[in-house]
Amino acid sequence: MKKILLILVLGFLSISFSYAKSISHKKEKRFCLPKDISNGFGCVWKVGHRTKGNKHQIQIVSKKDGHPVRDGKQSIRFEVRPGECGGTFDGSKVKGEGGFQLSNDCERDHKSERAELYSKYFKLGEKWYSWSIYVPKGQEKFKPASLKMGQFHSKLHKKYIQQAHFEHNDGKYTFNNVVCGSECKSRSIDPVGKWTDIIINVNWSDKEDGFYRVWANGKFIYDVKGPTVYENKNNAYLKIGIYRNAVNRLWGMGRDGGTTVVYYDNINAGETMESVLGKLNYPIELEYKKSEKEFIQEELAILKIKIKENNDPEISRKIHKLKRKLKRMNLN
Description:
alpha+beta
């Protein structure tokens, strides 16, 4: 009887997920996501060339098949399993951050596994973005490695790392303003087992007029002024999906990170808040009292502009002092 029940359960699962449409192979030409999932971007998407391309890695899935969907009938599902590294195993090298690296992600300095989509580059100036994210329960936390779910990356990617990202290695979801520095982070939120709606208002600029304003479920979690790109030629672009980086830190502990799954929906871009809200119908917080950490981050960002213009030892000392203070505050 137990064997019969097991066969029935497995059969149901295979039927439930048999209608998922894999797009893991779409690396050559740009394509549109369904309007039920994304609006405002247009046909700008490609699968990241370092995504291995297995069918299960990126799929358009539906509510009727039992998948989580924020609004409408569909969402997009990403999955990464241990060892799903992009590239080749022929010993060839490619140029990237920090010089030439082996082509295969499992052989590079910072071993990585990923399944990602990326957009075209954004023009400088103010823009609005949104997405909803659902992380199923029961997945392994990724510390001391990195687990990024959503990045604003760099056009000059061979010179700079990403300009901002959301980190999930501790089971939370935290916005990291990388141009400001590794210490510049938002309040953390819990995205596990439920939908979390993210809204981002950014002014893409390498000057003091840049800013990030970030909401989660209608509540402010980050509001900081300062540069949002490393230089004015370094346009940002969006990467969504899963990026498991520095997995060698887990390997050294006898771990592999298990399988990571995440769903995205309501992936929108526009010129106003209203244009990215979609069907969200709850109030959005418009006033926000900045934290001490955010004021320090703004000061740090402006000092970094000044140090580029004038390599003043006094400014350098102030930067290091503020970085140490932020690190202490982030630990508490």
